[in-house]
Amino acid sequence: MQPISYARHQFPPEIIRHAVWLYLRFTLSYRDVEELLAERGLDVSYETIRRWVDKFGSAYARNLRRLRPRAADTWHLDEMVVSIRGRHMYLWRAVDSEGEILDMLVQPRRDKAAALRLMRKLLKKQGFAPKVLVTDKLRSYGAAGRELRLSAHHEQGLRQNNRAETSHQVVRRRERKMQRFKSSGSAQRFLASHAAVHNTFNLERHLISRPTLRLFRAAAAQQWQTATAAA
After folding, report:
1. What is the pTM of this model?
2. Among 208, 227, 211, 187, which residue's Cα sits nearest to residue 85?
3. Of 25, 152, 195, 208, which has fewest CB within 10 angstroms of its CB?
4. Neighbours of 199 (CB within 10 A)
């Protein structure tokens, strides 16, 4: 775990952590977060909040990922179109059978090379190969899997891949709130940070009891405190 340095900042770490958490956890704009802080008597401009998210978001996400348990061995892969500066790009995403976002990659094409890049990144980051790979009927997935010599059982079809399809909804909401992504690099950085926070606080609340939900919330809050602790 890498401690976070808050040196040379006017506001204390608690306020910085809370502002970044609000922006990454909920579908809010920088101005929304500014107003929420102002309601508590904190005079922070939305530009300051944006700089905090840019500076600390990736460091928080890196620490949060280190606290997550090992992913499930069933991976769902899918791609969606995003518009960046008027150009259609493809956001390739992978989630496991529990809904954990494993990784994502913004790429200009929807072909075998793009599928290969995503799969190689996944294998390196997760440290193990899946037992089951679930995708839509895009042939690039099968070609990439054969080149990597994956032994995973490959399931195809829209219905089988509902887990990945529904996982796009949270990205669509953020894309609309941000009035589209400004560049592929900024989209990649934001979505990586957003995914780590989403994984930590996505508690599947409709599937569990209230007492269990309270326990999960407390555990998620503790992970956040650990990941964002000051040096």
Report:
1. 0.87
2. 187
3. 208
4. 22
Q: What is the pLDDT of residue 206?
A: 58
Secondary element (H or E) of residue 195:
helix 184-201
Strand order in the sheet with 101-107: 101-107, 87-96, 74-84, 132-135, 153-156
Considering its fold, how many domains does the chain have in total?
1
Q: Is residue 96 part of a domain?
A: yes
pLDDT tens track for 70-121: 999 999 999 888 888 888 899 999 999 888 899 989 999 999 999 999 999 9
- What pLDDT sits at residue 21? 97
Write out the residue range of the structural domain in which residue 103 sits. 74-188
Q: How far is CA 163 from the centre of its chain?
A: 15
Buried/exposed 45-54: b ≥16 CB within 10 Å, e otherwise: ebebbbebbe
Q: Crossing angle for the helix pair 210-227 and 184-201, nearest 10 degrees?
A: 130
